[in-house]
Design a protein that fits this description.
By secondary structure, the chain is an alpha+beta fold. The chain contains seven helices and four strands. It is elongated, with a radius of gyration of 28 Å.
Length: 230
Amino acid sequence: MGFADFLTDAGLSTLESWVTTRSYIAGYGPSQADVASFKALPSEPKVEKYPHAWRWYKHMASYKSEFSSLPGDPSKAYTTYGPEKSEATINPKDAPKAAEAEEDDDDLFGSDDESEDEEARKKREENLAAYKKKKEGKTKPAAKSIVTMDIKPWDDETDMKELEKNMKAIEMDGLTWGASKLVPLAFGIKKLQINLVVEDEKVSIDDLQQQIEADEDHVQSTDVAAMQKL
């Protein structure tokens, strides 16, 4: 029977049950089974009501650019996947049968049955190894943060242009300086407020502050006014 209409609560409940113990609709990696099911959903499942379906949906969304290259038959409808018996059954006595059907996972890389012949087992392992190699080759975008930093001078006679020049002379892999402005403090003293973008794994904010504060002729102290993940 496969999945029911994802426009209904019953259909979404079937999907929720199916992916509760699975990362993918069929097998051990993303395939056209996931693509067909993903496209059949009118919108992102509500995380409060369908947490596992939501997790699967967000995971598959990261593969959107690769949908056409994923293994499997793109002509198959999403209703050909999922449990053989709909888990959103009307008659409670049919529920055990649905649970049994759920265990029949359509293995993308072949059966795990102990009786499979040597050739089938070898083919399955080759497919699995190829998928793992492809997955390992994918590079994730670097995690970045945007930081707003306050740099306070010693007094109102501090050369703020020279202060900013010295600060921006600091170069670090993963650091990008942004716009800056002078913000009044008190008694004619102004602080320099600047935005910068950093790659979290490459730039330590503490180390950067120490380098800025090393300009003791101009800098009294530094503070992180705001920080937000990109």
